[in-house]
Predict the structure.
Amino acid sequence: MELRNKVFLGALSSVLVGGAMLWEGVRYKPYVDIAGVLTVCHGYTGGDITQRTYTAEECRTLLEKELYTHSKKILECINVPLTQNEFDAYSLFAYNVGVKGFCSSSALRLLNQDKRKEACNAIAYTPNGNPNWSYVNGKFVQGLHNRRKYERNICLSGSYKFS
């Protein structure tokens, strides 16, 4: 891990937490998501979910803990210094696709080659321009593609607005 990247482990940006809350939404009772995964709160999928109603505080704590864990783990795969917006974008992306998904992605490969624009674009698009990381069980999901475009926008410009 780049020494400079260790700085990001101290605190999660409010923008990262807010972005995750925006795209994950919140459900206080466990449910099965569109991929068939037991989920609660802001997209939490840990093996310790119990069938009960969670509080807003519990959900926020789970989200922050998981974002911190995902962010720390993705930094182990990244070999170049990051800007805050890149860190936020890749952390939000990894929170949704998993650390393994991020660490095996073309976005990471391109980032580690210092092809930053191409890496950011790879979050949302394949090289031929098709949606990337926007499918569940082989079916295109517009909401996921909208999220990928949001993450790409953060990565490229540091803009946290959805357009």
About this structure: The first helix runs from residue 14 to 24. The mean pLDDT is 91. The two ends are 33 Å apart (CA to CA). The beta strands are 27-32, 38-41, 135-136, 139-140.
